[in-house]
Each structure stands twice: as structure tokens, then as C-alpha cells.
Amino acid sequence: MPNYTVEAVVLKRSDFGEKDRLLTLLSPSHGKIRAIAKGVRRPGSRQAGHLELFAHAKVYLAEGRNLDIITQAETLASHHLIRTDLGMLSLAYYIAELGDALSVEDEKNYPLFSLVKSAFSQIGGSVDHSSLITWFEMTLLDIIGYRPDLEHCAVCATPLGISAGICRDIGGLVCCNCTPHGGHLVSLSGQSMQGLRGVQLSSTWTASADSEAVREEMRLVARHFVTHVMQRELRAEQFMWNVQKLQAIPV
Ligand SMILES: [Zn+2]
């Protein structure tokens, strides 16, 4: 049974059998890995604490017939703060579900691993979560080959300048002349357009717009692009919105 070692983040985990756990890992060298951690639910298991959800770890594996077996793990960053707050937790679930949906087994992808790892480590910091999601989604689309065109109308290819909008049925941005008959165009502010272009040009996390309205508008656009690529709603997305609505209610 050949052994191998990877650096990975834990995207998903569930109970398996009576004492084991099934984990979905994202690694730079092997892409997505589904593996069994044997005996980790036994009281006193030494591995248990090293394979927390969203943790960044060094993982030692043995190739199995169907699923690989985790033989040892060492935590590099536990990201424990995420698990102490419902808002952070819902955001991390969303990032993990998108990372899971868009990664491939046995296919190395360092940029995707690096993006997810970086997003998990930013969640616990003092970052604005709307901006973090926008940055994550825009960068993710770029990595998987769906970089949104922010410069041209998706219908007539006219250069957009700082005036554009989004329409439910069209995946890209549209100019004001191209609203489909009966369609509803959401016009975007020049600040949002500039902010989105700034995010697309930046290779690392940078805090975006000062105005909350602009940040929310940018997030709406990034979500619009992701929805068109995914063609389905993610379970964690609804959870994230519900938590945000709940947290917006004054206590
Ligand atoms: Zn147009």
C-alpha cells in the first residue's frame, strides 16, 4: 500500500462506521482527496484534534482500494476561531462547499488550495466578510477558468467604462442598451465597477470599498457570476444568508 504525505485543508467531514470519520481534503499536489481517518472518534484518539473542520494540516496517507487511509496528521493552523462564531462558521462552510464543488480528485491545483487556505485564515481576522466573499469568489472564478469580463457588454461587446448592470438571465455584465425584453436590469455604481476591477487585478487579499452599500453591491455581482457558473444554489449559501439575517436583528 503506497504511502504519501500532503499539506491540506479539511473541507468536509462526517462520521463513518462506529469509530471512523470520512474526510474531504483539498491539497495542492493531489487536488481533492476523500479519505478515512480510522478510530478518530475513539476517546483519547491522538489524531482527532489534528483533523478539525477547516484546519490546515500535514496529512500522511496510505493508498486504499476505494478510499485512502489517513495514518497520521499534524495541525499547521487549526483556525479554531471559526468554530466559535456562527457568522464565521457559515462563511467557512460556504467557502468549503464551493471549494469542494469546484475541485477535482487527483489533479494538482496549487492556486485553488492557496485561495481556500488563505480565505480560512482571513475569516478569523478583522476583515469585512462581504469583501472577503467577493474577493474569494472573483479569484475562484479566475482560477477555474471563468474570469468574468468586466470590460465589455456580454451581449453586444461594447466597452463598458464605468456604466454597467446585471440581468438575471445573462451571466456577464450588460450595457444599458442590452436589457432583454421584459428583463430587469440592476444598474451598478461606478464605485462598484472600479472596486470589482481592483479585486480582479489584485493577486492577494486587499480590503475593498469603504462604503457598505458598495461592498454589498460588489458582493451581489460576484454572486451573480458564481450562480451562473454553478447552475445551482449551494446548501451553505442559504445557511450563510439565514445567519446574516439573524445577526442583523437587534437583540
Ligand atoms: Zn450591450
From TrEMBL:
One GO location term (cellular component): bacterial nucleoid
Gene Ontology BP terms: DNA recombination; double-strand break repair
Domain DNA replication/recombination mediator RecO N-terminal: 1-78
Pfam families in the cross-refs: RecO_C, RecO_N
Keywords, alphabetical: DNA damage, DNA recombination, DNA repair
InterPro entries cross-referenced by the UniProt entry: ARFGAP/RecO (IPR037278), DNA_rep/recomb_RecO_N (IPR022572), NA-bd_OB-fold (IPR012340), RecO (IPR003717), RecO_C (IPR042242)
Family assignment from sequence similarity: Belongs to the RecO family.
Function description: Involved in DNA repair and RecF pathway recombination.
HAMAP family (UniProt xref): RecO
Designated name of the protein: DNA repair protein RecO
Taxonomic source organism: Candidatus Wirthbacteria bacterium CG2_30_54_11
The gene coding this protein: recO
